[in-house]
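Question: Send over one sample?
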Amino acid sequence: APQQLAALAGTLLDTEQAGVLNVIDLGCGTGLAGVQFRQYAASLKGVDISPRMLERARQRRLYDELENRDILDALVRHQSDTDLAVCADTFPYLGDLESPFLAVNSALRPGGLFLFSVETHDDDNDYRLNTTARYSHSEDYIRALAGRRGFEVVACNRSAYRKEAGEPVDSLIVAMRKSA
């Protein structure tokens, strides 16, 4: 997911934006997205609830700041000061995404980008808990949330960025822009 999100960012960001953005990596884990997005960051902040993951991210020496917090708690501290929010393979651990979308919108500057991945399904449920103990979200739900929370969907690409029991998992790689 981090590589696919970075490739998408490369199509949406100008070369002049390299090294000048305030970037927040939500659910940063060991820092895999940090590796991909450091090139864009004047400031790179990582957020995760696991101290062990944060220690591994710290060892990469990519982040300017690492926070041991829930992503909602961390985003409350950021009001219109973020240019790019990245959330790679974290939303499968959350069902309802209303609050995270609202919090990201509050943290982003007008025109800021929100890049994330979700596992997906094609049934009528907005989201569902799968037998893998991970949530999947419908594309319709993601698009409806974008509209309700002040985002324009600029890309929503089908993917299979991970495998489960050797089988590809249907996923979406999404880019949204905060309305100006």
